[in-house]
């Protein structure tokens, strides 16, 4: 493992001779080198990882080639072999420490191997693993009551499953059974899962297999994206940071971009839906895989009214945005100022344990009584014990408040980077749900070339910070860390990103 000073030294060496860029573009000719900024030191961590004793890196590569299906695509040219985690930190097989800014894809909500969650799981493992819900066991009941208490309005009926895709499958089934309608609306650029049912909801071509029937009854509507979409202005988003697009909106007119996108939605009701009837509409409260895209303020509330007026229900996909991540609310939909009819949740709910849920009104839940519906593992004792402990930790450690404070600081630091680096086209998000879009041209918002994006991303990793990526072109850095990170971590991550951009800017790729 690199010592702290060696790590800082390495980071400095990587920057030596590189120009600190201000307004030049990535493709401009290199100017004379100036002293780079100093990489801030990797923050302290008093945890010592276990020594790695597993198969060699080469053996892992061999097993992967022989026995792991090709859909499992690792990140990075030289993929990491991670064997230990502690809170916001990950350790590779050589003992090197990384600041995890992606949390296992927005899943590790309260911290890797959080001691309280570990203890709860250990206690449950020693008590009862599994019965399936053919018998009563206490944990699912305790947990359902606690989770329901977090939900507003009539959202009090909970059905536990094991993954986000399963939760969205079930929500689709409920919407169709409850309303008697078939059609479901989602946004282009949405990600709602990979099961054959939810693959139809997902509207990113990169994530779709050419299967007949996947799109049966699904309408993908125009994404109300204030940065990349047809319309968008300087005050559309519910975020401390806005796009650099101009707009003519005034307090009297409200958000004009939102109104234009809403008209597009109305067109779909007018032209595409059978007699304008709909079973439901899904929306992530902030799009995750699509690159942390936020909708114009007020759009979702109006869309939900339109859906309900035409027979449907509104489903909030909180798989990434739930459990305090967006900071000012526990659920992302609360920022849209409405109560959905069905809420789906996964990922952060279990801090990495396979656990997911659908929460709806008793009336909509009754639709599941029309036939037998069963899920072997859903809400099993171990998952329920973990879910309860995660809720405890979020409350005890005030992680929602931390997401707001640290996330806002993060966003502001990143907005400063946007002033310095032309290739940062947009910074957006709320709390610890952040996106940084890299572009080759600020005016056209064209994506930065893939080799440059990948090189910056990999360089950050080599300097000790793991970011995620998203967006259709993979050019949005996704920052969704465990919610326990600190401002010191943020400073390190932002300095690292700046240094990586500086380094890559002067490389010919
Ligand atoms: C918003 C959203 N919904 C649903 C899913 C599907 O979840 P899972 O991979 O657990 O099936 C994902 C996964 O990334 C997601 O981001």
TrEMBL record:
<dbReference type="GO" id="GO:0047305">
    <property type="term" value="F:(R)-3-amino-2-methylpropionate-pyruvate transaminase activity"/>
</dbReference>
<dbReference type="InterPro" id="IPR015422">
    <property type="entry name" value="PyrdxlP-dep_Trfase_small"/>
</dbReference>
<dbReference type="GO" id="GO:0008453">
    <property type="term" value="F:alanine-glyoxylate transaminase activity"/>
</dbReference>
<dbReference type="Pfam" id="PF00202">
    <property type="entry name" value="Aminotran_3"/>
</dbReference>
<keyword id="KW-0496">Mitochondrion</keyword>
<protein>
    <recommendedName>
        <fullName>Alanine--glyoxylate aminotransferase 2, mitochondrial</fullName>
        <ecNumber>2.6.1.18</ecNumber>
        <ecNumber>2.6.1.40</ecNumber>
        <ecNumber>2.6.1.44</ecNumber>
    </recommendedName>
</protein>
<dbReference type="GO" id="GO:0016223">
    <property type="term" value="F:beta-alanine:pyruvate transaminase activity"/>
</dbReference>
<comment type="function">
    <text>Multifunctional aminotransferase with a broad substrate specificity. Catalyzes the conversion of glyoxylate to glycine using alanine as the amino donor. Catalyzes metabolism of not L- but the D-isomer of D-beta-aminoisobutyric acid to generate 2-methyl-3-oxopropanoate and alanine. Catalyzes the transfer of the amino group from beta-alanine to pyruvate to yield L-alanine and 3-oxopropanoate. Can metabolize NG-monomethyl-L-arginine (NMMA), asymmetric NG,NG-dimethyl-L-arginine (ADMA) and symmetric NG,N'G-dimethyl-L-arginine (SDMA).</text>
</comment>
<keyword id="KW-0663">Pyridoxal phosphate</keyword>
<keyword id="KW-0032">Aminotransferase</keyword>
<dbReference type="GO" id="GO:0019481">
    <property type="term" value="P:L-alanine catabolic process, by transamination"/>
</dbReference>
<dbReference type="GO" id="GO:0009436">
    <property type="term" value="P:glyoxylate catabolic process"/>
</dbReference>
<dbReference type="GO" id="GO:0005739">
    <property type="term" value="C:mitochondrion"/>
</dbReference>
<dbReference type="InterPro" id="IPR015424">
    <property type="entry name" value="PyrdxlP-dep_Trfase"/>
</dbReference>
<keyword id="KW-0808">Transferase</keyword>
<dbReference type="InterPro" id="IPR049704">
    <property type="entry name" value="Aminotrans_3_PPA_site"/>
</dbReference>
<dbReference type="InterPro" id="IPR005814">
    <property type="entry name" value="Aminotrans_3"/>
</dbReference>
<comment type="subunit">
    <text>Homotetramer.</text>
</comment>
<keyword id="KW-0809">Transit peptide</keyword>
<dbReference type="InterPro" id="IPR015421">
    <property type="entry name" value="PyrdxlP-dep_Trfase_major"/>
</dbReference>
<dbReference type="GO" id="GO:0030170">
    <property type="term" value="F:pyridoxal phosphate binding"/>
</dbReference>
<comment type="similarity">
    <text>Belongs to the class-III pyridoxal-phosphate-dependent aminotransferase family.</text>
</comment>
